[in-house]
Amino acid sequence: MNDRVTHAKQVLASQNIELPSWAFGNSGTRFKVFAQQGVPRDPFEKIADAAQVNAYTGAAGSVALHIPWDKVEDYAALAAHAEALGVRIGTINSNTFQDDDYMLGSVCHPDPAVRRKATAHLLECVDIMDATGSTDLKLWFADGTNYPGQDSIADRQDRLAEVLATVYDRLGDGQRLLLEYKLFEPSFYTTDVPDWGTAYAHCLKLGPKAQVVIDTGHHAPGTNIEFIVAILLREGKLGGFDFNSRFYADDDLMVGSADPFQLFRIMHELASQDVVGPDSGIAYMLDQCHNIEAKIPGQIRSVMNVQEATAKALLVDTEALSAAQASGDVLEANAVLMDAYNTDVRPLLAELRGELGLAADPMRAYAASGYAEAIREDRLGGQAAGWGA
Ligand code: LRH
Ligand code: MN
């Protein structure tokens, strides 16, 4: 057990969970966006808030940007600002879902002029990666149809493939594109990249620089996500995760809050293949909206939830598990896994934080820091950041 704890601490000490800049801005649903005080007004303030999460968890050293929500004059200056705060700019997210021209789609739109406009935006995102030193371009397309007959499913796939190939060819050394799928919303009849199979098929055709992102909120209810993880890992096509959780649809709630056992099962699949660490080539990201809860503590709690699920997965007695699986001892195999899941790993993580010079309880330490009060007082005036929809 001690070797397993030592190994778990080593992996956890190097774990990096990338934060979404948009989680620090105002967000909501079509019914209401409840504005919160002290919310950032620009990407510099978003990164400052993300750096707070890293300061208390030690496990959130990069921030994903979303363009144009995080558009700035000087991306190199933004990258330097991040570095000065002990974090770095990570994944660049494109946005071809908020322009009036994109009502019938963007890269799959029947009008070539609209597809050219969308392509230009995606290529601009690669230019931004060059300026920030980012390696990952994440592509999620809201593209789809609402009624049977609205458009040709096959033609839309051809259009998508053509644009993806153009972007793929633009990627520089060490850069890759991550294709994110989603079952539905905002389209309700077809979505052009609805599932892992469609994303995988496109990435396979594109080449080694194209991989799939699994957003844990983007599946039909009851989908076995860890099975998808195992398959994409096996194919070398698992590029990353957008972690969050949900009770019904794409709720974007705090990861592990709705179904901590599912998160554990996913982390078990990854730990058993030894791809939890930062050099695994898998981008571990959060993609969440804190519609009613405080945003920085919400991100801290989310990072802690991933750490707890990861720690439990790293404590699985893999020898006993393999032996039970090999001998067909179903109950024993399940019991070995449940032992790890039912292990309270909070003392181990508190101890590790102490060893890393961090406070044992990041939530309590942040609350005592006075940062929340300071930004509520300082950030008066200006336009609070949001989805700009
Ligand atoms: C789409 C999505 C995508 C992002 C957006 C913020 O639902 O998951 O990853 O671009 O949320
Ligand atoms: Mn996502």
From TrEMBL:
Pfam families: AP_endonuc_2
The UniProt record lists the keyword Isomerase: yes
Domain of life (superkingdom): Bacteria
EC number annotated for this UniProt entry: 5.3.1.14
Keywords: Isomerase, Manganese, Metal-binding
GO biological process: L-lyxose metabolic process; rhamnose catabolic process
Domain Xylose isomerase-like TIM barrel, residue spans: 73-270
Molecular function in Gene Ontology: L-rhamnose isomerase activity; metal ion binding
UniProt enzyme class: isomerase
InterPro entries named among the record's database cross-references: L-rhamnose_isomerase, Rhamnose_iso-rel, Xyl_isomerase-like_sf, Xyl_isomerase-like_TIM-brl
Database matches in PANTHER family: L-RHAMNOSE ISOMERASE
Protein's name in the database: L-rhamnose isomerase
UniProt organism field: Glycomyces paridis
